[in-house]
Amino acid sequence: MELKKDRVPFLDVDVTALRVDELLEVLSGFLAGEGTRLIVGHNLHSITLMHSRPDFRALYERSDVILLDGAPVAMLWGKAHGRQTRSAAMAYRLGSTDWLPALGRLEGLERIAVIGAGAGANAKAVEKLRRIVPGAEVAGRPGEAWDEAKEEAAVAWLGEFRPQLVLLGLGMPLQESVLLRRLDQLPPAVYAAVGGAIEQLGGVQKLAPRWLGRLGLEWAWRLLLHPGRVAYRVFGEPWVLLGLLLRRRLLGR
After folding, report:
1. pLDDT mean across residues, the chain
2. Mind giving me the DSSP string for 160-178?
3. Reduced to 3 states, what is the DSSP secondary structure of residue 7?
4. Distance in angstroms (rounded) separating the CA atoms of residues 161 and 204
5. Does 159 have pLDDT greater than 80?
6. How far is CA 171 from CA 78, 115, 215, 240, in A?
7. What are the residues facing 39 on neighbouring strands?
8. What percent of the chain has a predicted confidence (pLDDT) above 90?
9. 100-104, 168-172, 217-221: the lowest-pLDDT one
């Protein structure tokens, strides 16, 4: 299918609005083709980073698919593009854990690499993906205590394994930084930045109930479970983003 980027006017970003079946169609085309493809997602955290870090923006501008990962982003996109109801906009909200369980419906997917999370969570996620995609070769490398040596080793490992799909879950913005600086050294594949989805697939991090996701309230679930990690993103970062957007408008950029 032809990929089209839509603008989210207030947030000044472009997104690729897709549902699960549409993303699988895109992935099928990527697997049948050649070269490297990048899949990332936009939530308020990524948009804040995009407006404050030129390197982060450079990766998103290079990406082939930018999913609507956050509820506020999906709803603002919906208002700008004719999806006036919450449910119509939220149908296009696509976090990593929404599409990873559907990989078994993707023909021709034979080799998957999973990089990120602790050793236990990574191993459990690898086993889960082997059940989701029967017959595929799935291998993983933990991402804890990530440093230059581990990064070099991961690049070499990917060169030997030659996966078709790489799930990179090192957290934002580390995973994006790794992709940007190593892209020319990595073997051709589809690279997806999946954040905490490896821990969620491995059962280490509990997923929010689906009804909370439909209401756009997953942030409350994460705040309850991980207050120290999430509080700033929920209560502080939106004000930082607002300041960045106002400054961008005043400068006419």
Report:
1. 88
2. HH--SEEEEES-TTHHHHH
3. strand
4. 26
5. yes
6. 27, 11, 24, 20
7. 65, 192
8. 69
9. 217-221
